[in-house]
Backbone:
């Protein structure tokens, strides 16, 4: 089993400029977060908006070799969810600078996701205990 190098705290603040996936209504957006396909967490979905405001924070342990955060935005529908776009975040700059706070464009235009990501090394986690 790999050693935990630390944790990342990911705050999904909000999104903007999301393209409507439905013909007759606004999106009901939600996000799925994974770190290198291992951990998975989800935001709540917000009804009838293209400007969702989640302000939800998630914590992920980081093991050696894990360096990508994937956030996929979906539009919740009755039977399934439509993909609105994805952000792939390289975590190396976060590890080096201890934080990232910015708007990141989705892979599908025109949407953007507002994120705050914080790195807490294992040494700092031990100090806090």
Residues:
């Amino acid at each position: 089993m790999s050693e935990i190098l630390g944790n990342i705290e990911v705050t999904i603040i909000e999104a903007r400029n999301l393209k409507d996936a439905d013909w007759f209504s606004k999106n009901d957006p939600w996000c799925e977060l994974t770190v290198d396909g291992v951990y998975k967490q989800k935001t709540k979905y917000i009804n009838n908006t293209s400007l969702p405001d989640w302000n939800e924070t998630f914590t992920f342990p980081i093991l050696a070799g894990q360096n990508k955060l994937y956030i996929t935005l979906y539009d919740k529908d009755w039977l399934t969810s439509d993909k609105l776009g994805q952000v792939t975040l390289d975590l190396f700059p976060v590890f080096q600078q201890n934080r990232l706070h910015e708007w990141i464009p989705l892979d599908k235009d025109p949407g953007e996701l507002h994120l705050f990501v914080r790195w807490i090394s294992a040494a700092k986690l031990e100090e806090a205990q």
The beta strands are 4-16, 29-35, 39-42, 53-63, 68-76, 81-90, 99-105, 112-121.
